[in-house]
Amino acid sequence: MAKVVIDALLERFPGAVTGAAAGPGGDDVAFVERERIAEVCRFLKEDPALAFNVAPYVTAVDYLGQEPRFEVVYNLLSTRRSWRVRLRVKVPEADPVVPSVTGVWRGADWFERYCFDMYGIRFTGHPDLRRLFMYDEFVGHPLRKDYPLRGRQPLVAERGVQDVYRGPGPAGRD
Amino acid sequence: MASEIDVVPAIPTRKDEAIGRLQQMVSQGLGWARKYSLFQYPFVTACCGMEYMTLAAARYDLDRFGAALPRFSPRQADLLMVVGTVNCKQAPVLRRVWEQIAEPKWVVAFGVCASSGGFYDNYATVQGIDQIIPVDVYVPGCPPRPEQVLDGIMLLQKKIQGQTHRLVEPAPAPAIVAPGTR
């Protein structure tokens, strides 16, 4: 279906796009070199034959124990062609910096903030790279696999209720 | 009704007895009046809010219990209903809303998330609002049936009826000290 997309990418960016494969159900995947992701995205959007005008979802994955550790995943949609493609960018832990695609799709703004909040991946060129979900006082990035699952950082002091009275009601249940 | 911790083992004087009897009568009257005019502040954060709407609407009709009118200002409310999951980011807001409610005030934890955090045992969720504010009635369920909440409201009414209104404050009010003299 969208073999055209893969071919166009491989033809236009022979060095930057690797591992392109057409998955089942139009689930096309391509690995893109980190430094050129914004350039590849701009091509996909502005080429009239492709016209990937929406980035419905941009997210990240933490492959703890592998190197490079992180991966940013761009799910793209062309409403004109009804094509979808998924670009994956490997990001090393030592230098988790990716060029921002907010210049291409304005809607990628909050997705990149989400990736920064949850995984600590920084996007160069992002206009307002703050945390999206967690509060500013929060330390660390909670969706990293080495963040403790119950690592709560309460903003108000917790009262430390041990147990509540679990017998019959205070007025004697009827 | 006084709980065990309220019972002070002391020999009452005639004055104490007189005050006690009067206090009991006033408390009963106040409790009767208060339990049928619960003005609630719905702190609705999640899906339990749907069940809360059902509860407040005509079919289950919270109005029968005198708790008809949700006030959206904590200053006009005396029953804080925490309906839904409270996360750590919201905890200061909930605490502040509770502090703004004038005494006497009561709190109902509506649903498991408000009661104990529910299945959200993770980095973001408060494990029960009793970690932040004191709670009078816990209503479990995900979400609770409206009948369960009505049962909780009736429990709360019994509690309110049994509470004591002090006529005489045992401890004197702290003296006002001019600033700079302490």
Sheet with most strands of chain A: 5 strands, mixed
Tell me the span between the first and last alpha carbons of chain A.
69 Å
Oligomeric state, counting identical vs distinct chains:
heterodimer
N-to-C series of helices and strands of chain A: HEEHEEEEHE
Strand order of the largest sheet of chain B: 1-2-3-4
The main sheet of chain B comes to: 4 strands, parallel
**Overall pLDDT of chain A, averaged?**
85
Within the largest sheet of chain A, what's the order of strands? 1-2-5-4-3
| Topology order of chain B in helix (H) and strand (E) letters | HEHEHEHEH
CATH topology of the domain at 37-162 in chain B: Rossmann fold
Radius of gyration of chain A: 22 Å
Low-confidence segments of chain A: none
Instruction: Label the overall shape of chain A.
Output: elongated
Classified by CATH, the class of the domain at 37-162 in chain B is: Alpha Beta
What's the CATH class of the domain at 3-94 in chain A, please? Alpha Beta
SS-based class of chain B:
alpha/beta
